[in-house]
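Provenance and format

Records in this collection were gathered into a single text stream. Each protein contributes a sequence line and a token line. The two records reproduced below are adjacent in the stream.
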Amino acid sequence: MSKQWSERVCEEFYRQGDLEQKFELEISPLCNQQKDSIPSIQIGFMTYIVEPLFREWARFTGNSTLSENMLSHLAHNKAQWKSLLSKQHRRRGSGQDSAAPTSETLEQTEGATP
């Protein structure tokens, strides 16, 4: 389910970027589907938004079982996205895929279930 929502959000970002490009505007950060892949967007979101929030929550709750579980699941999900990003970089390096991956190319990537 996480993967589906990630794809939906990024598709919205990409549509915005396409419109900005159509009207010859500067493309907003994270909205350029030629540069910004779904895995890299998700890793950045987890690193700069979710992880600091969860760490502060853990500090606030005294490292409760819930906060430990939250951080554990976050680490697992982040590792899954990093693995997917690595696979896509290898594919791109072999010339199989020149553009940043979108939801269509994520579907083609084996074992992609973050």
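Adjacent record:
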Amino acid sequence: MTALTATASPMRYPDAGSRTLMTRRAWWLVVLNVLIPGSPQVLAGNRRLGRFGLGTTLALWALVVVLAGLWFFARTVVYSIFSNSITLWVIAAVLLFYAVTWVILSLDTLRLVRFVRTAPSARAWIAALTVALMVGLSGSAAYGAYLATTASGFLSSVFQAGPSVPPIDGKYNILLLGGDAGPDRDGLRPDSISVVSVDANTGRAVMIGLPRDLENAPFSPGPMADKYPQGYGYDDTCDVDVCQLNSIYTEVELKSPDMYPDAAKNG
């Protein structure tokens, strides 16, 4: 190694006899490993590993830029991506890949630091920071992968494939109920009641909130309409304590489950 080479490449060919220089070099390698993973290897280690690390880093940055652009200019695309169970599994695999890659690059960076040549007072700090950043980055990526797989499983269990249902008057109407059932309570009483109406042609959705204390709620033709032809709770008549909209579910569940024998089968 010539003096010219050492001067031109202080990261790859440092003056190992200077603890000050080696300590400064070690801090630079640790910082670069966080800011631009793969760059320490390109500058001071295995260039093939470094190019691989840089390539994955640039790919991740490009992906983040694309997602940021979609968030600002085509937000529905982002929602579609992160609500697809298959896409979530792909995201989980990518995050696990980056978690493993960061561990490999961080451990290799520790090797390149050459602790025995650094100042004794700085060795513990350099090692602690490198390990903490490695655990933080890789752990975050691994946890993100876990969340992605969990979300994918949740979506698959909730939105199971089934026979298609034709729209009614060009609309898909979905009832959303938020209940407060518990082990120490009888039945379920929906305290949050909303109807989401989706246009079958345009996909435009409208949400309508219904007050839980609505009285004299009318029914479409069926068992409840036969029982309460003038509306639920008309003249303060019902089979539970409070004759309001959110009591209908409770009454049918506890008092008259035989009214709708196919309810469980039909979801």
